[in-house]
Amino acid sequence: MSQLANQHGAINLSQGFPNFPEDERLLQISERLIRENIHQYTPMAGLPSLMEKIAQQTEKQYNRKVNIATEMLITAGATQGVFTTINTFVSIDDEVIILDPSYDSYEPSVLVAGGKPVRLSLNNDYTPNFNRIEDAITSKTKMIVVNNPHNPTGRIWTEKDFEALETILDKHPQILILGDEVYEYITFTQPHISFNTREKLKHRTIVASSFGKSLHVTGWKVGYLIAPENLMYEMKKVHQFLVFSVNSFSQHAIAEHLDVVDFGEVSRMYQRKRDLFQSLLKNSRFELMPCDGTYFQVVNYSSISTQNDVDFAKKLITDNGVAGIPISVFYNDATDRHMLRFCFAKTDETLIQAAEKLCKI
């Protein structure tokens, strides 16, 4: 869709990346550091000063104390963290439960490991269906992937959701959890509940986070994993021969930036953008779905067209000059409920221009 948007000069609300400037303080730190002697390998698991800052933030945010020597790993983006996690623990014929619509890197990572992806649909309101999850568990189930806050739908799990999962997993102690929490600092009307806070699940959970999302520097590709020592010990073996160590410059810059960044302000900034985008589309023919977190707004276009969502998304670019992502592509069975995902991590000017075009439809 981004390629098609470029071809037609459309406003690109499809791919999930910000188009506004980075934090000026981060740029100033970067300008100073570029001349310093920081350009050689960091330790394999990550830059110690960055890991210490992450540990401090994790304790502040989630009241979880993390041993940086044994329970943390800096990764080349959260996607590499996802791949490393799955390919450490999933073997041939192991089953991995993935909740659709889902981020597109989960299934390929399972397939590379020789495992079997088990794709289960969320409810129509994009909340988890725990009856479906429990029915899908077999003796071969090795892992469940939980993306919260959720891409592409923007929904957030509640306390009751976590309690339901805990009840199910009490019966299946062999199952691991991959908690993809890359949008953890982009939440709105309700707080994000992290696996870092779940005492019943922490011992079997790998939590993936992303500075690309939290600091809106997606191209830096720096993320991290937090997991108990016995799991982290195994993941480091894969990480060492996959990337060895992560970009040193970015790690140094982020480590300094964490002294001044306010993740609460990051969340408030995105909430302002969400509220602006929603207000601009209020009188359009699109129906706005709930957006609890992330920087994605899902809309239903049923009152506009009966076209399938892929064709409608293409027509929206060619005829109306705005690019979105059809939700069906996030499903294994291409479920089409006439939904599109728009990214509102854009300048106010971009959002206003896009909304003007969408409101004319």
UniProtKB/TrEMBL annotation:
One example of the protein's molecular function in GO is:
transaminase activity
Residues forming the Aminotransferase class I/classII large domain are: 11-358
Q: Name one Pfam family in it.
A: Aminotran_1_2
Query: What InterPro entries does the record point to?
Result: Aminotransferase_I/II_large, Kynurenine-oxoglutarate_AT, PyrdxlP-dep_Trfase, PyrdxlP-dep_Trfase_major, PyrdxlP-dep_Trfase_small
Keywords, comma-separated and alphabetical: Aminotransferase, Pyridoxal phosphate, Transferase
Q: Record's superkingdom?
A: Bacteria
Keyword hit for Secreted: no
* Protein's name according to its UniProt entry: Pyridoxal phosphate-dependent aminotransferase
